Amino acid sequence: MEVGGPYTRFAHQWVLAAPATFTYVVVFASSTLLQRTGPPDLIDVLTTVQSTSLVRLSADPLVVLADSALWVSDRGAFLTFYVVVYATVVAWAEQRYGTPRIIVIGVCGHVFGSLLTALVEYHAITNGLAPARLAFSTDVGVSYIMVAGVAAAVVLMRGRWRAAGIITLAVGIGAPLVIADTLWDLGHLLATACGLVAALTCLRMSPPRTPPAFDLRRWGMSPSVTD
């Protein structure tokens, strides 16, 4: 006998079909809980030490790039937004690309997006276009991996879903860049581009997987966003 209602069974299947995505959600949600319950001064020290700032990258790049992906920026702000996007769009992308490829895409978005942003930051400081204190700025968060995963998902969408995905991604990435014009907004654009290149490269190596057979018709829903 099946346990739970149809929505419970669907949620269970959905999570199992995207293990990397949901494991990562648990990781950064846990760090957010730490941020919100821990001493503020201690959290500031931890995020500064584990930030992908120029100073920290030059000291220990591999460790810093790994550590910075564990934290939600601004002491856990917009956690709900991140969880929703990961649990829907990025999870769907993992189901189509497979766990190994979605990990590669996310890592490319985070690592290369961070390094390219640091390169822009370095040139801005050395050419007098930005203050030297920018080299100590704090830059942590899960957003680079998120936008890379979303870009990968949009590649596989079809019809109105693809149009909606492109518009949403363009507005979400482009609007802050035009309005605020900060280094971190540029970083999101670079991470998106890196994720897109990684996704296209993965698809050249192997076609997307057939999505899991979720029985969505019982709720009157389309069985796939690609229909």
A few lines on this structure:
With 227 residues, this protein is mainly alpha-helical. 72% of the residues lie in helices and 0% in strands. The longest helix is centred in the middle third of the chain and has 28 residues, at 99-126.
Morphology = globular
How many domains, in number, for the residues?
A: 1
How many separate helices? 11
Please provide the ordered H/E string of secondary-structure elements.
HHHHHHHHHHH
Strand % is: under 5%
Give the biggest beta sheet. Answer: none
What CATH first level would be assigned?
Mainly Alpha
Span of the ends, CA to CA: 32 Å
CATH topology heading:
Rhomboid-like fold
Secondary-structure-derived class? mainly alpha
> Would you report the number of β strands?
0
Residue share in helix: over 70%
Model regions low in confidence, pLDDT < 50 over at least 5 residues: 219-227
CATH architectural category: Up-down Bundle
- Over the alpha carbons, how many angstroms does the gyration radius reach? 19 Å
Mean pLDDT: 82
Explain how this protein is built.
The chain has 227 residues and is mainly alpha-helical. It has a single domain, classed as Rhomboid-like fold. Helices cover 72% and strands 0% of the residues. The chain has eleven helices and no strands. The longest helix is centred in the middle third of the chain and has 28 residues, at 99-126. It starts with 5 loop residues before the first helix and ends in a 22-residue tail after the last helix.
